[in-house]
Amino acid sequence: MSTIRLVHRLVRPPMSHLSSTRSAARSFSAAFHPQANKDSDRAHSTTPQHRVNQTDKPPNPAVPSTTSTLTKDFPKAGEKNPPPDLLNSADPNYKPVDTYPGKVEHYTGGRQQHGAQKPELEVGEMEGITFKVEPLRRVGEDISTMRARLLYQSRKRGILESDLLLSTFADVYLADMNKEQLQEYDRFLDENDWDIYYWATQDPPAEGGAKSDVSKDTPTETWQRTGAKSGEWAQTVGAFKAAYRPVPSRWADSDILRLLRQHVRDNSANGFHAAKNRKTGGGGLNRMPNIQIFNN
Asked: Tell me, what CATH number does 286's domain have?
């Protein structure tokens, strides 16, 4: 019997490698065919409805870390009275973390009731810190060295806008300043760059009428018509109108700030011709002037 089987095996043609691969692939694909394994889908019957509910929900509001429940965005917060067993543990003199809640703007768009107003920040003070950065004062500096130093400090600021504004201003007025004006300009340069820029370029709100500026940063109408529809980033330059920054009392009657505001008007399109006649501007603020060498 074994001899007969051996003869049959020798007579039968051998199976090729390609046919064996095809048969293995056919059996593998048939085992995992979706029609052949309908029961393998374990998704819940309410999955599509749940996915729609999750995508239709509004995003969670950005809640700040301080006094968030004092706004009207969360009306249910504090609606019910606390349990009697917790009344003894409550601090009757509790105050929110923000000292001046009337000026706190929340990311959610809510605003607290008007309260105490924040005082003016002095030079070297920053909101949220308990220390004060004192500016470096020079003692025994001669006029020539002070003038050269102020020219350098006018050209090397923290932002490009202040570089262009103060470098062109120093090129026009610095050479004719007396010692008192140089000292006042020295103190003025210790202020924050963005404050200097807005103090010099923004017009105060109109008195007795409609306000010429907004109380907080708002998108411009041009960006709403074009950039918002095209998907342009809101951080793009010119997309927002900056809120008006009032001039502090220490610079309200400053001759330096008056000259700086006049310098901005002289280099604007409206004051171009008058400034050229006075030789106080007219060239614009698009580039830094060449370094001026002072004789005294």
From this structure: 1.10.150.250
DSSP string, 270-289: TTHHHHHHHTS--S-SSSPP
- Distance of CA 81 to CAs 27, 77, 142, 240, Å? 69, 10, 69, 43
What pTM was estimated for this model as a whole? 0.57
Q: Which two tokens stand for residue 119?
A: 């005082």
Q: Which domain covers residue 141, as residue numbers? A: 136-204+245-295
The percent of residues in the chain predicted with pLDDT above 90, rounded, is 22
Q: How many domains does the chain have?
A: 2
pLDDT at 269 over 90: no
Residues 179 and 269 in one domain: yes
Interatomic CA distance for residues 93 and 268, integer angstroms: 55
- State CA 231 to chain mean position distance: 18
The reported pLDDT for the residue numbered 145 is 92
Q: 231 φ, ψ to 5°?
A: 85, 15
Contact 42, 89 (CB under 8 A): no
- Which residue(s) pair with 219 in the sheet? 240
Q: Residue 106: its pLDDT value, please? A: 46
